[in-house]
Amino acid sequence: MGRELRRLLIAPERIAALVAVGQELPWLALEPKEGHYLERVLRYRPGDRLELVDGVGQLWTAVLAPERRLRLEQPPETPLQREAPVTPPLELAMAVPKREADLVWRMATELGADRLQPLLAERSAPGERCPLERWRGIVREATEQCERLWRPLLDSPCEAGAWLARPAPGIALLATTRRDGLPLCSQRLQALAEGASERDLAAGIRLAIGPEGGWTPEEQERAEAAGWHPVSLGGAILRTATAAVGGLALLADWRALRNASCRRPSP
Q: Top-level CATH class of 90-262?
């Protein structure tokens, strides 16, 4: 049995540069962190094969060569595998918690989120940190680990009230608590999706999770004025990380079921 091919994600701009070179099977120089990961972490040696992905739906196989280089086994413009993005796209916006943000971004990547938005809410815990480059590294590693071909986009942190006040395209769900009569997230999503046009669905589905102190009345008012629909994630008061992962799992499950039902049966 051959060795399992592990994955390495690189920026699509580096593949584009190989296309410009014009070689049929070009060589790719590894960056220091990539070389360390392959040689020290995975214990790869020259001659070992791996899968190379660009985070925008394309995959090649490659061979590790001496001097920390890779030789692609397919032309850069003709990948071994090409995959369209899953639709509708899913976006998770989360008020940054004092702890566990790293865990949420990793799990959100594994669950299939297409866009991640850190928010700075009025009731966020004081002293929250936003190490954006580290977070993006976590998303990259999670993309490799769960074998996605599309890497989620992690945006820069925004002030929550201003971000929620922007016009909300597609279906926008605002998870909140301590309000009577709110529909469950899954019920509201189903109802909104049934009445949505294909254009609305193509704009995506967004879920916003507040801080553990809850959204302020002003943040909720601004969000609802912009088209966000308040929803409940159940009767319990959840930690931010729990709510984010649980809510996104509901959206991902709904999308998977919808796409499965839309597929034509095999002949």
A: alpha beta
